[in-house]
Amino acid sequence: MIAMAGTILTACGGSRNVAQVPGQPPVGLGPAWTMPCNVYDTPQEFAATGTASGSRHRMDAIQLAALTNAQNIIRQKMEHFYQGFVDSYMLGVGANQGTDFETEVRNVGRQVIVAMVNDARHSCLQWIGPCERGDVQAFMAVQISRERVAQEITNRLSRSEHQAVRERAAQARGEMLEFFQDLGNSPE
Question: Taking 80 as the threshold, does the pLDDT of residue 2 lie above it?
Fold first, then answer.
């Protein structure tokens, strides 16, 4: 919140020295406020609020920059949670690090997360300004369902090449067994 207030002051040409006394709130920023479009993660959704500022004559670019900022924040959160899940899952099933399966699970998750974040639409858009210089600031919220993320990843994994890898391994085992049996039956 303090950083946001500093951003607004800086965006509109203000440059104050803000004194910080340990254990005390910063002096000189004015009253505390809540960021517009502020959203929080819930057990049902990942959420992020992005911001951007600039000339009121380029509100289109400012809006796009705020969306990109929110998407980057939510993507980082989703990737962090997913990597934690994969690490925990791999420890639980006892798979060795670096296996084809683990690599595939990580890659499929990353691809789904990137696609979902790129497709994310904002759930809130609010503007502040213009200030004396004519600058405005956009605040944009993005929310993505955790259940939808999990469903998309599992759907993609079930359609993935993992089954083909398993089938190729089973075929190779059969061929190896035949080869070993043939070696045992050959005259020496």
Answer: no
Cα angle, residue 173 at apex, residues 168 and 176 outer, rounded to 5°:
120
Contact 60, 29 (CB under 8 A): no
Classify 103 in phi/psi space as left (phi over 0), alpha (psi -120 to 50) or beta.
alpha
Query: Residue 160 has what pLDDT?
Result: 59
Contacts of 90 (CB under 8 A, 6+ apart): 97, 102
How far is residue 18's CA from residue 178's CA, in Å, rounded to a whole number? Answer: 78
Q: Distances in Å between the alpha carbon of 119 and those of 21, 36, 86, 116, 122?
A: 44, 22, 23, 5, 10
- The pTM for the full model equals 0.67
Interval 78-96 mean pLDDT: 77
pLDDT of residue 17: 44
